[in-house]
Amino acid sequence: MRIVAGSRGGRKLQTLDVRHFRPTSDRVREAVFSILAGRIMGARVLDLFAGSGALGFEALSRGAEKVTFVESGRNLANLIERNGKALGFEDRYTVIRADVRRFIVREAARGDHDVWFVDPPYRGGLVQPVLDAAAGAVVLPLVIVERDKREEWSAPLSEWSRARRYGDTVVEFLIQETEEEA
Q1: Of 27, 98, 108, 142, which is least packed with CB atoms within 10 Å of its CB?
Q2: Could you tell me if 174 and 160 are in contact, meaning their C-beta atoms sit under 8 angstroms apart?
Q3: pTM across the whole model
């Protein structure tokens, strides 16, 4: 696995052989960031269920200001730290080891992030509870959800502006309506 483009394009990321660990493929990350285009430059990014940190590090490589990685697994949180140091991003990210659902309820209500990546283990039933927890508390400019095509859920926040399918992976982009749009 590697960083696809930006200031660290081509640099390799370490991974782990861990149960339920499914890093976002290079192809999907390339497509996601092509769709996001200029929305990443200077953004404050929240990478939930961060795994190796591939999505967040791709965002940093493409000009994001800061990334907060949230990962519950100790080994994966340590992996994110190793990847961040190897890429030279030490001052531009934070790793929080926490359950994502609890983190959102406790912390994300502050609205400190411009972009959220939500990429839980496939078919774990975690997309819906995470978005439900966020729905009433946060003004989110942009949420990107990566999920298995067989996972059922409903968008509690707003209307989806774009969805793309890559094999068994579906990536959905949510832009929350502002009061002027409603």
Answers
A1: 27
A2: yes
A3: 0.88
Annotated domain spans of the chain: 26-174
Q: Identify the band that residue 163 occupies on the pLDDT scale cut at 50, 70 and 90.
A: confident
The CATH architecture of the domain made up of 26-174 is: 3-Layer(aba) Sandwich (3.40)
Q: Convert the chain into a string of H (helix), E (strand) and C (coil).
A: CECCCCCCCCCECCCCCCCCCCCCCHHHHHHHHHHHHHHCCCCEEEEECCCCCHHHHHHHHCCCCEEEEEECCHHHHHHHHHHHHHHCCHHHEEEEECCHHHHHHHCHHHCCCCEEEECCCCCCCCHHHHHHHHHCCCCCCEEEEEEECCCCCCCCCCCEEEEEEECCEEEEEECCCCCCCC
Query: Using 50, 70 and 90 to split pLDDT, how confident is the model at 180?
Result: very low
Cβ count within 10 A of residue 100: 22
Write the pLDDT tens digit of every residue in 53-106: 999 999 999 999 999 999 999 999 999 999 999 999 999 999 999 998 888 877
